[in-house]
Design brief:
The chain is α+β, with helices and mostly antiparallel strands. The longest helix has 25 residues, at about 140-165. InterPro entries: Chondroitin_lyas.
């Protein structure tokens, strides 16, 4: 290895000058926050095996290593002190001198020889590379060479070996390629950069064509953040290499990210500060905000001024009011995202005008290629209906999926009412259950004679559920990428006319035999009323089970049940749900004490892992097996004091229902199930839903109708 370092890869002279001399208030507050964060870590050997005296708890040293080293290196580049230099030297040498088996990762990673790198290896590459680039002078010349050799042999080579041995396209590949690229850039190895760059550039194809991501919101951010680090490691020193990378692949997904964000509110167990909450389908945290460095990178580097302004607006919304909000040791792995060492140089650049979602022109009803579909009554309004619909173009990066097709979340008044379970430690036995269809707001099926019976049987009955482990999308020997992987669902419609929205998704193929059709139709009427109509066909008789997961994260939810009804209230708002049936009104089975997780942690029983009963699961089950069924559920979300006033009545015609609250009245009439024709009548007008063929549904406002709420 030859040293060809000519200038910094992470901080230019002009960026440094701007950071130190700018009068910009935002830049100043993050400058102070970085100094505070780094200073707080100097009192303990932060990356030692024993976490005593640190804020790591049971968190292994691998996980915060990239953050701790890169933050400290940037602070040293801006305002060096003797204490910081000594801390950086000790922690960098401690890391570099660890045996190669330590660089492989924790016990659950494969340690068979020859050693292969894992995510932890790539993260160590990021951290050590930042020190060599920004703070190499804290090491003697001999120590610098020792660290460079460790980075090459224990880090870069292990990442490269993983890339050579694996051929699937997903977030893992992006992390490993980024670790190798950042290390090669810090080492000045242009020949190796040329070799690695095509693999990194190929990762653009992991995103859906519209910039959304198939695995989940959290893992899309994780991958994009890794690609961001690689880009920023190249653009200042190797701009020709950086131009081969496609910022647009994830930059165009800023609209999807913005749509996924719900609100900022304190969360029980996490202190009094407001914290971001997001739609968390598949393996994703409810406690989510996009990584701060990533948002500023898109704002600074992406040529689309609307998406760039939206990224800048998201940074303003979720970071500028709380630059010191922790934890600060879980972000680089994407467990709980934060801003990092690149926030300051990126803030020092000329950034676009801040755009809110409304200013960016994001629609109130929107569907994305990963099946995520969102319905709002207004930006900054009362309600958000979020749906995991089918994926019409296939899944570009299969992995980290849950059995959540045709599931949905319902938020009202900054409270998640119908929720998604999220995910916990992957070594937990419950991870399989929290990923299963039965713990989502979707349907499962009894295909045997058994019925849901005694209370002790509610959580162990055998059910037909969706497949959530798919084939991998493989890279061919010529470097081309295989076709997107079929998940088994199709989004049939996402339409809005005035304040009425129609979403239709079909998911039968995700279950397999004997399910032939599972079409779910949502009709959202303003902020309060949601009609959910299911049409199900099977090759042999099945009993359909409808699952409803209610948020009880803080044990503050009050539940009431009655024949055909569930009501849930929390913090002054609530949900009333009717299982509409002209023939019978069964009592809901439950609650089954389920799990609602705030965020992932690599260790079990940590802050963020839901306890039993953090989710309350209720079920309605058809009384007898049948090959064809349809069912309407009516949901009302409102202030808790108003729920009792809302009433549901069966109409004079079959499949006709009216839900009313004083002068507000919504009547749904289903004169034809296949091809579907459905009428919605309110005091303000008349809407018609028509199924024109198996691929198209229309929503029409008749006679100039307008919904008045």
């Amino acid at each position: 290895m030859e040293a060809v370092q000519t200038r910094s890869i992470f901080l230019t002279a002009s960026e440094k000058e701007a950071i130190l001399t700018s009068s910009d208030a935002v830049l100043a507050q993050f400058r102070a926050a970085l100094a505070q964060r780094v200073t707080a870590r100097l009192a303990a050997p932060a990356l030692a095996d024993d976490p005593a005296g640190t804020d790591r708890g049971r968190l292994g040293w691998w996980y915060p290593a990239a953050e701790y080293l890169s933050d400290a290196a940037m602070e040293h580049a801006l305002a060096p002190t003797a204490a910081l230099a000594e801390w950086l030297r000790e922690e960098t040498l401690r890391t570099a001198r660890r045996p190669v088996a330590d660089w492989v990762g924790p016990w659950f990673r494969s340690h068979s020889e020859p050693f292969t790198g894992h995510l932890e290896t790539a993260h160590l590459c990021w951290g050590v590379a930042a020190v060599l680039d920004l703070a190499s002078e804290v090491l003697s010349e001999d120590e610098q060479e020792e660290v460079r050799q460790a980075l090459h042999e224990k880090g870069l080579m292990l990442c490269q070996r993983w890339l050579q041995q694996n051929t699937h396209l997903a977030n893992w590949r992006g992390i490993m390629a980024s670790g190798a690229i950042v290390a090669a850039a810090a080492l000045g190895d242009e020949e190796l950069l040329d070799e690695l760059l095509p693999d990194l550039a190929r990762l653009a194809q992991a995103f859906q064509p519209d910039g959304s991501y198939g695995e989940s919101l959290q893992y899309g951010n994780y991958l994009a953040n890794a690609l961001m680090l690689a880009y920023e490691a190249l653009i200042r020193k190797y701009p020709g290499h950086a131009q081969q990378l496609d910022v647009a692949a994830y930059g165009r997904g800023m609209g999807w990210v913005a749509q996924s964000m719900l609100y900022r509110q304190p969360l029980a167990g996490w202190g009094p500060e407001p914290r971001a909450r997001a739609v968390n389908f598949n393996d994703s945290a409810a406690l989510f905000r996009p990584s701060g460095d990533l948002l500023l990178h898109v704002a600074a580097r992406y040529s689309d001024t609307v998406a760039a302004g939206l990224a800048r607006g998201l940074f303003q919304e979720y970071y500028e009011s709380c630059p010191t909000q922790g934890p600060h040791n879980l972000a680089s792995f994407g467990f709980i995202n934060d801003w990092g060492f690149l926030t300051l140089p990126l803030l020092a650049r000329t950034l676009p005008v801040v755009l809110t979602p409304e200013q960016a022109g994001l629609p109130l009803t929107a569907a994305y290629a990963n099946g995520n579909t969102f319905v709002r009554d207004a930006w900054g309004g009362k309600s958000v209906l979020a749906i995991q619909g089918g994926m019409n173009e296939g899944c570009y990066a299969p992995g980290h999926l849950q059995g959540d097709l045709n599931s949905f979340m319902l938020t009202y008044g900054q409270e998640r009412l119908l929720a998604d379970p999220g995910h916990s430690c992957y070594r937990n036995l419950i991870h399989g259950l929290e990923s299963a269809t039965q713990t989502h707001n979707s349907c499962t099926f009894l295909v045997e004679a058994d019925q849901l019976g005694l209370q002790e049987d509610l959580a162990k009955i055998k059910l037909l559920e969706q497949r959530n482990v798919l084939a991998r999308r493989l890279i061919q020997s010529d470097g081309s990428v295989g076709r997107p992987v079929e998940r088994g669902g199709r989004l049939r419609a996402a339409r809005r006319v005035g304040d009425v929205s129609l979403v239709v998704s079909e998911a039968a193929a995700s279950y397999g035999h004997p399910i032939e059709e599972f079409t779910r139709l949502w009709l959202q009427c303003g902020p309060h009323v949601t009609f959910v109509l299911d049409r199900i066909q099977a090759a042999e008789p099945v009993s359909t089970v409808w699952n409803w997961l209610i948020n009880n994260q803080d044990d503050a939810t009050q539940i009431g049940t009655a024949p055909g009804q569930v009501q849930a209230t929390r913090h002054g708002v609530g949900l009333r749900l009717w299982h509409a049936s002209a023939k019978h009104s069964p009592m809901p089975a439950g609650p089954v004490y389920s799990y609602l997780h705030d965020a992932y942690h690599p260790e079990p029983a940590q802050l963020g892992e839901g306890r039993p009963g953090s989710g309350l699961l209720f079920r309605f089950t058809d009384p007898a097996p049948t090959r064809a069924t349809h069912r309407l559920h009516v949901l009302v979300a409102d202030e808790a004091k108003n729920l009792a006033v809302w009433q549901l009545e069966a109409g004079p015609d079959p499949d006709s229902w009216t839900v009313r609250h004083g002068a507000q009245e919504f009547t749904l009439h289903l004169p034809q199930l296949t091809l579907l024709r459905l009428h919605l009548r309110t005091a303000g007008g008349h809407w018609l839903v028509e199924e024109t063929d198996e691929f198209d549904y229309r929503l029409t406002a008749l006679d100039g109708s307008r919904l008045t709420i």
